[in-house]
Design goal:
mainly beta, Porin, 2 domains, 18-stranded antiparallel barrel, two-stranded antiparallel sheet, 23 strands
Length: 623
């Protein structure tokens, strides 16, 4: 990471810690600013009404104290009593936000929100994080956020020794699969908005987020990092990008309880469903959205144009991969209450339903990634530029029914591809995906059971593409970032495709999740598992998951690898992780995990019987 980067990270950590650890006494409101000429409580006055010299009583009368606003309010001191106000029953206040408030320890000198503070302190009120309006305004707020993420990872994944082996004397096909990654990511955001946002949506908003990423990867085999073996087994990369930049405004109010229609235009983050199964990206687009019936209904209508992603950081690049998404979705809160208005509220309230339609259009294009590999079209079979038009219909649930927490997702993909590289012909897409998670909370523990199905293609040459693939997914499911299958990409040996890509559960056989095209001729996935979350302390959370994975069908893999009789069993994904928030806020988050994939007979048919593993640690500092 380098001395300079480590020093910057240490400085940021110490700054956040110092803000939190500063004694309250250092930030106390000084008992100054009392009105001259006002006697102390119980003190005799002189002939002119002023306190007599040497009069008893040291504190001015409590009614005439001039307090300052709490935290870092910006601007000048808050309103207080002045000499001319003594004859009135009320005091004029020009700034209704920066009103003085007496300092109070609230029983603790180490953690009190009732204090004055520095503009660098994110733990108390601060106008730079939207707690007060911008100085000189009453309804315009600015929220600035800076995030530093430090990540270290190590893993063992199947890696062929290729025609340029590191160890020329190795007689086996697979080489050393050890890999490591160090990454530093900086995110800077500015959110300027106007409105009475405590009880109604913003009138307008301007949001900008930039990112800078440095990463260092190391592998033990040639060709693991580069298409050119002469470029070595280590890679340093830097990338900066504008991730989001959008303007949002309220177009109309459609109800007495602030149901509104709003518009957001520009590069923005959007998640199509509750768990990120289909489309979760930061992309330029136009989005119209709103609420109805006291926020019981929410809806979105949007069109997005995806940006290409940097190969090694995943940040946006200002290149057009010619992929468009048109979508409409509708949410209903308390859907069971709506369907059964006379039912028991304990069972009918708390479940949200969503229906959606996505139209995905992917035009012909040719592209190579930063490391020299072909990503569009896919480098397999008959390599021909192609396009696809696919419609996705979805139904999703999230919430609880009684004590049972429920998350489910159903998607059906229907469309056509002008040409599929694996099938060697045009194909008709007809594929589906289903996911279900049920859990129950028992005191400080949560017990989960979950299942997932990605349909697979049983015959690569029949002209029907029946393997489901997402547009750009990032699922929080089956262990999420802690699971082996979801966090670590596994290349399909003997091809330039990925069996599964980082940040996805799908066995898609894409060339790249970030830069490639969806592929609907794939083996699919069947997954079932259990999970256990435990809030061990208010600061520390434990996450444990175990999954069993199968290919739905292996015909496509057998054809790509020209290998018969590949089994369906992938194996067992076992993972555990911890999340620690030392200050009980998100300003400092430390998390880490270890995971393993114990191969089944199908995975061993393609790769080896060697157990794969991964471990990671992250520190996230946010101001």
């Amino acid at each position: 990471m380098g001395t300079r980067n480590l020093a910057a990270a240490a400085t940021a950590a110490l700054l956040l810690a110092a803000c939190k650890a500063t004694p309250v006494d250092e930030n106390r409101v000084k008992e100054r600013g009392y009105l001259a000429g006002v006697p102390a409580a119980g003190a005799p006055a002189g002939k002119d009404g002023k306190p007599a010299e040497g009069a008893a009583g040291e504190d001015p009368h409590p009614a005439f104290r001039h307090y300052r606003p709490l935290g870092s309010a910006g601007g000048g001191p808050g309103p207080g009593l002045e000499e001319g106000h003594l004859e009135y029953d009320e005091i004029p206040v020009l700034d209704r936000w920066r009103i003085g408030f007496p300092a109070w320890e609230r029983g603790s000198k180490s953690d009190s929100p009732y204090d004055m503070s520095s503009v660098l302190d994110p733990y108390h009120q601060n106008w730079l994080k939207g707690d007060y309006p911008v100085p000189g305004t009453q309804n315009t707020f600015l929220s600035i956020e800076a995030t530093l993420l430090l990540r270290a990872e190590a893993r063992r994944v199947p890696t062929p020794s290729s025609v340029f082996p590191t160890n020329a004397g190795n007689p086996t096909f697979f080489g050393d699969g050890e890999q490591s990654l160090l990454e530093e990511l900086v995110l800077l955001s500015a959110d300027l908005f106007q409105g009475e946002t405590s009880f109604k949506p913003v009138d307008w908003r301007l949001f900008v987020r930039g990112a800078w990423d440095w990463n260092h990867a190391r592998a033990e085999e040639n060709l693991a990092l580069y298409a050119d073996p002469t470029r070595g087994k280590q890679r340093n990369d830097r990338q900066y990008s504008l991730q989001q930049a959008f303007f949002e405004t309220t177009l109309a109010s459609v109800g007495p309880k602030y149901d509104v229609v709003q518009m957001r235009v520009g590069s923005q983050q959007f998640n199509s469903d509750f768990r990120g199964f289909l489309f979760f990206d930061e992309a330029p687009g136009l989005r119209i959205f709103g609420t109805l019936d006291d926020n019981h209904w929410q809806w979105n209508a949007a069109i997005f144009r995806r940006w290409n992603k940097d190969t090694n950081s995943g940040l946006n690049e200002f290149e057009d991969p010619k992929q468009r998404i048109l979508l409409v979705n509708l949410y209903r809160q308390d859907v069971l209450r709506w369907l059964f208005p006379h039912g028991n509220a304990a069972f009918t309230e708390g479940l949200t339903a969503q229906v959606s339609w996505h139209r995905f259009t992917d035009e012909d294009s040719v592209a190579y990634n930063e490391n020299g590999g072909l990503v569009r079209p896919q480098p397999v079979g008959t390599v021909v530029p192609n396009h696809r038009d696919v419609d996705y219909l979805g139904f999703n649930l999230d919430g609880h029914v009684g004590r049972i927490n429920v998350t489910s997702s159903l998607y059906w993909a229907k469309g056509e591809e002008s040409f599929d590289e694996i099938a060697g012909q045009p194909t008709d897409v007809d594929a589906s995906m289903a996911a279900l998670e049920l859990s129950i909370d028992v005191d400080w523990m949560r017990f989960k059971v979950f299942g997932f199905r990605q349909s697979g293609d049983g015959d690569a040459l029949d002209g029907d593409a029946e393997g489901f693939d997402a547009i750009y997914d990032n699922p929080v499911f089956a262990g999420g970032e802690f699971g082996f299958w979801n966090r670590n990409g596994v290349a399909l040996t003997g091809s330039a495709l990925g069996l599964v890509h980082r940040g996805s559960l799908l066995n898609s056989l894409r060339s790249s999740k970030d830069e490639g095209q969806p592929n609907y001729v794939n083996p699919g996935l069947l997954l079932g598992g259990v999970g256990y979350d435990a809030q061990l302390t208010p600061h520390l959370k434990l996450i444990v998951n175990a999954s069993y994975l199968l290919f739905e069908d292996t015909d496509v893999i057998e054809r790509v690898l020209n290998q018969d009789s590949i089994g369906t069993e992938i194996g067992y994904d076992l993972s555990t992780g911890v999340l620690w928030r030392p200050g009980l806020t998100d300003n400092v988050i430390v998390k880490g995990g270890v995971s393993a994939l114990v191969p089944g007979h199908g995975f061993r048919d393609i790769y080896t019987a060697e157990t794969l593993y991964a471990a990671f640690g992250e520190v996230i500092l946010t101001w």
